[in-house]
TrEMBL record:
<dbReference type="GO" id="GO:0008762">
    <property type="term" value="F:UDP-N-acetylmuramate dehydrogenase activity"/>
</dbReference>
<keyword id="KW-0521">NADP</keyword>
<dbReference type="InterPro" id="IPR003170">
    <property type="entry name" value="MurB"/>
</dbReference>
<feature type="active site">
    <location>
        <position position="172"/>
    </location>
</feature>
<dbReference type="InterPro" id="IPR016169">
    <property type="entry name" value="FAD-bd_PCMH_sub2"/>
</dbReference>
<keyword id="KW-0963">Cytoplasm</keyword>
<dbReference type="InterPro" id="IPR016166">
    <property type="entry name" value="FAD-bd_PCMH"/>
</dbReference>
<feature type="domain" description="FAD-binding PCMH-type">
    <location>
        <begin position="21"/>
        <end position="196"/>
    </location>
</feature>
<feature type="active site">
    <location>
        <position position="342"/>
    </location>
</feature>
<keyword id="KW-0133">Cell shape</keyword>
<dbReference type="Pfam" id="PF01565">
    <property type="entry name" value="FAD_binding_4"/>
</dbReference>
<comment type="function">
    <text>Cell wall formation.</text>
</comment>
<dbReference type="InterPro" id="IPR006094">
    <property type="entry name" value="Oxid_FAD_bind_N"/>
</dbReference>
<keyword id="KW-0961">Cell wall biogenesis/degradation</keyword>
<keyword id="KW-0285">Flavoprotein</keyword>
<dbReference type="InterPro" id="IPR036318">
    <property type="entry name" value="FAD-bd_PCMH-like_sf"/>
</dbReference>
<keyword id="KW-0274">FAD</keyword>
């Protein structure tokens, strides 16, 4: 079937974003293969009206807050597939299509004996979105085991392979997010997962959970199960309560500011960085300012985790932004710390 027949008008994205916002896309197309994407690119170049539309690349919709009306052509990437691509003396090279569910992919790697990604269990979204945000949790970032990815350059039509260096990964950032957003459509991602595995138990919650369950020598699956249980105890299920996961990045501050906060708040949670700075727990800061459990008409702050904003029913992008800005202003005024929003407002 030709791509032009798959283009839909005024498509409701309510079920394609984890915050559950009803957003009307001017045009929508589901992409299931490279050949379809290439044909669509050709069509867009040939159609003057379509070529003028802004483009939105959509994966799992778990890291974006949508406006009610999007003048975009939305490319929903649903390229599937999982495989062991190769082996080296010290790693399993596994590849997954950009449309694969991230958590299901992590479980698949563990079930097949390819460890390494267990600390990133239960993170919502797709494999293709993981490099864009350089997702991370519990002492691990995606870049730690990233090998390479393939992406289609929508400007030139070239299928390009990106190495780790090419991606310019940073904390919750990459070239795909802050370089030229929308230029490259990620097709698949490869990971180099270690044959000599060591558990990463940097975060106390994980070690405490394993100890409480009498797991002295954890396996990768044990660590995954612990993180799944911890996340489920703190974070709402998007299928039940609309949310975008952690809404603010953990801020990096100077040692002086961290020491100042410790004098006022001895329980302030902080993690030393290699350059002498400290990473603070954004959720802890927000909770100290009294926002945990807050509710307005359509949006609120999750009662179990102040880092998570939630859809109380009928939320739109403007209401979410208003609440986020109010929290940012309050934390800055009371703590002297600037919080940066993690999801992208579209």
């Amino acid at each position: 079937m030709k791509p032009e027949y798959l283009l839909q008008q005024n498509f409701d994205l309510r079920h394609l974003n984890s915050f559950g916002i009803s957003a009307q896309a001017h045009r929508y197309v589901r992409i299931e293969s490279l050949s379809q994407l290439q044909a669509l690119r050709t069509q867009l170049q040939a159609d003057t009206d379509l070529s003028q539309l802004p483009r939105l690349i959509l994966g799992g919709g778990s890291n974006m807050i949508l406006s009610e009306h999007l003048p975009h052509i939305v490319l929903h990437i649903a390229i599937m597939g999982r495989q062991l691509k190769a082996e080296t003396s010290d790693a399993f090279i596994v590849r997954a299509g950009a449309g694969e569910n991230w958590h299901q992919f992590v479980l698949w790697t563990l079930a097949h004996g390819y460890p390494g990604l267990e600390n990133l269990s239960l993170i919502p979204g797709t494999v293709g979105a993981s490099p864009i945000q350089n997702i991370g949790a519990y002492g691990l970032e995606m870049q730690d085991y990233f090998d390479s990815l393939r992406a289609l350059d929508m400007q030139t039509g070239e299928v390009k392979t990106f190495t780790k260096q090419d991606c310019a990964f940073a904390y919750r950032d990459s070239i795909f997010k802050s370089g030229e957003p929308g230029r490259y459509v990620i097709l698949d991602v490869c990971f180099a997962l270690p044959k000599q595995w060591q558990a990463r138990l940097n975060y106390g919650d994980v070690a405490k959970y394993l100890q409480a369950h009498n797991v002295a020598t954890p396996t990768p699956i044990d660590v995954s199960n612990a993180i799944i249980a911890i996340r489920q105890s703190k974070l709402p299920d998007p299928a039940l309560i609309g949310n975008a996961g952690s809404f603010f990045k953990n801020p990096i501050v100077t040692a002086d500011l961290r020491d100042q906060l410790l004098r006022q708040y001895p329980a302030c949670v902080s993690y030393p960085q290699a350059n002498g700075d400290y990473k603070l727990a954004a959720g802890w800061l927000i909770e100290q300012c009294g926002w945990k459990g807050y509710s307005a008409a359509t949006v609120g702050v999750y009662e179990k985790q102040a880092l998570v904003l939630i859809n109380l029913g009928g939320a739109n992008g403007a209401a979410v932004k208003q609440l986020a800005q109010a929290i940012q202003a309050d934390v800055l005024a009371k703590m002297g710390v600037s919080l940066e929003v993690e999801p992208v407002f579209v």
